[in-house]
Amino acid sequence: MKIAVLPGDGIGTEIVAEAVKVLKALGLSFEMESALVGGAAYEAHGHPLPEFTLKLAQAADAVLFGAVGDWKYDKLDRPLRPEQAILGLRKHLGLFANFRPAICYEQLVGASSLKPELVAGLDILIIRELTGDIYFGQPRGRRTAVDGHFPGAEEAFDTMRYSRPEIERIARVAFEAARKRSKKVTSVDKANVLETFQFWKDVVTEVGKEYPDVALDHMYVDNAAMQLVKAPKKFDVVVTGNMFGDILSDEASMLTGSIGMLPSASLNDKKQGLYEPSHGSAPDIAGKGVANPLATILSAAMMLRFSLNQEEAAARIETAVQKVLAQGLRTPDIYSEGTTQVGTAQMGDAVVKAL
Ligand code: NAI
Ligand code: MG
Q1: Over the chain (355 residues), what is each successive 10-residue block's mean pLDDT?
Q2: Which residue among 49, 144, 221, 281 is least crowded, i.e. fewest CB within 10 A of its CB?
Q3: Domains detected in the chain
Q4: Where does the entry annotate site (Important for catalysis) (predicted)?
Q5: Which residue's alpha carbon is at the smallest distance from atom 33 of ligand 1?
Q6: pTM for this structure?
Q7: Looking at ligand 1, which residue's alpha carbon is closest to its atom 22?
Q8: For the complex shown, is ipTM > 0.95?
Q9: Residue 111 has what pLDDT?
Q10: How far does CA 195 lie from the centroid of its chain?
């Protein structure tokens, strides 16, 4: 089991160190090798995703990733910015399916911004398509308008695109995931306005016929955004395109209490995956030893489950995390009165002890 460890920038190094500690405590034999990525790699090698780092990731069964970025790189040309490293890794590894489970742990029900009864027991899975949609569609650019409401004016444009194979493979991933859960998929689109998403809806419906045991419903994205805060527990697996998934998964993250609790997995068709917390490098708290490492530790659990075939070890980590929460240990982002405030390393140590 080969793991490429890419801590990155800011709190990335602090939280990944805790996840590595937890992985080592499992007593399994991993081959773990680290490399620089993002701003750290730019400083050392002049590029956010150096050849060595990319090769290491490509040769691994899984990548454990921290976060990249810092405001001090904002003035760099776009291809040299730290964030390009994560886009490059997604592209080179063919990672097309992004899993973001939003689970509200019993101990954190009070930390959510929604009423306790709306989030108690919440366990939904948002699956976002990662390679297509308006984020990558060509053509795009700026030009002088020849038609539209203001001919002759300066304008900008992007192209929303999805191909049948792209939709089919993400739909299959969603139906397969639902089979292991409560057998319900909600496909989110904007078929009433966008041809791309009428096509999305048609193709998902066709693929759904291969899964008669899974219930499929369709929802417009604006309604889905509303339902997520009105009655989030009505959802189980949500599958959607790149842009809608970006927005809805951030919305869902707040249901769980803190972005510091949310793991994620990005997978390709060979079960190779990149595992990272949903948050960024948090420059505002970097170096202070207060970042919540649980999202990264839970991402390591997803890595064991999806890429390394170690379901039992994955479940052990998840149980250990619930145990430390039940003990009342809290990093500042999830702290509430009556609990015990701890730092990043103490939280990691507590998970190791609970294992
Ligand atoms: P962020 O997620 O880094 O931080 C947002 C807020 O959440 C901050 O107040 C931060 O202190 C807090 N926070 C985040 N993670 C936390 C944790 N584990 N424990 C406690 N508090 C936590 O997002 P922001 O500030 O918009 O971006 C900072 C940098 O991160 C930027 O350069 C951005 O481009 C980059 N970024 C990188 C991502 C990645 O590597 N995949 C994803 C998102 C942002
Ligand atoms: Mg986002």
Answers
A1: 97 98 96 98 97 98 97 92 94 94 89 88 95 91 94 96 97 96 96 98 98 98 97 97 93 86 93 94 97 98 96 97 96 92 98 97
A2: 144
A3: 1-99+262-355 (3.40.718.10), 113-137+163-256 (3.40.50)
A4: 135, 190
A5: 69
A6: 0.91
A7: 260
A8: yes
A9: 80
A10: 27
